[in-house]
Amino acid sequence: MCRKHQLLYAVTLAAVIMAFPAACFAAAIAAENVTASGGPSVTIGINLSSGPAEEVAGVQFDVVFNGAVFKLAENPGVAPGPAALTADKDVSFSVLEPGAVRVIVAGFNQNAIPDGSVAEVTLNFVSYPYDSVEVVSLRNVLLADPNGGAVTAQPQDGAVVFPVQMQAGPHEEWCLTLWLAVFAGLGALFFRRHRDVHESAPATSANRPVT
After folding, report:
1. DSSP secondary-structure letter at 88?
2. Cβ 73 vs Cβ 41: under 8 Å
3. Helices (H), the chain
4. By three-state DSSP, how is residue 199 classified?
5. For 183, phi and psi rounded to 5 degrees?
6. 122 in helix, strand or coil?
7. Which residue has the higher pLDDT, 29 or 52?
8. What is the rounded distance in angstroms from the CA atom of residue 156 to the CA atom of residue 97?
9. 9 burial via Cβ count (<10 Å: 0-12, 13-18, 19+)
10. Residue of 65, 140, 78, 73 whose CA lies nearest to 105
11. For residue 47, how many other CB atoms are within 10 A of its CB?
12. Which of 3, 36, 67, 131 is deepest in the core (most CB within 10 A)?
């Protein structure tokens, strides 16, 4: 290959490397998508996925949500996920304002955190907006490698899906009315039979009239 072609090849290769998306080398951190099941709360996992040749030893992020729908649970609120526990990391958090919680996953070690859940955030329901989707965002994400260097982060928002509220149609309402009528009739019949048996029972020595 002549020098001219070598130079052209080197310039082209450098351009391709520079143009390659930085996100491909980033560590992704994502909030899970979950469905509300009708209970008093919902737990959202925050998952880490390290990029090629990346090691993450510390994580910081803000969880942002609709304060009119959710409130951070008091106990545990935010707990370490399995990946954090594997790396012997602790989780600390603080409520910045209604609808925003700062979470730090770190430890007094240089252990790399494996891919998986680094934290589990439990939110209580303040309201229950049926047939809607509430976004749970990750903001101000900071990742550090075992030596304290910055790792490029690619945050991904999650969501809580609220199901459609089921309403009884005409057929269901008719069935409910019928069942209520049946139970009311059975109750009246039982009461009447009990009264008849009581009235027809022979007098005992305790209540037989004295002659």
Report:
1. T
2. yes
3. 3-19, 82-86, 170-200
4. helix
5. -65, -40
6. strand
7. 29
8. 21
9. exposed
10. 78
11. 19
12. 36
Phi (first) and psi of residue 84, to 5 degrees = -65, -40
Question: For residue range 12-45, what is the model confidence (pLDDT) as tens digits?
Answer: 333 333 333 444 558 999 999 999 998 999 999 9
- DSSP H or E run through 31: strand 27-31
Alpha carbon separation from 117 to 32, 120, 126 (Å, rounded): 10, 7, 25
Other beta carbons within 10 Å of 182: 10
Rounded Cα distance between 154 and 31, Å, is 12
Residue 143 pLDDT exceeds 80: yes
Q: What is the distance, to the nearest Å, from the Cα of residue 190 to the centroid of all Cα atoms in its chain? A: 49
Q: Looking only at Cα atoms, what is the longest distance across the chain?
A: 139
Dihedral of CA 179/184/185/189: which sign? positive
pTM over 0.85: no
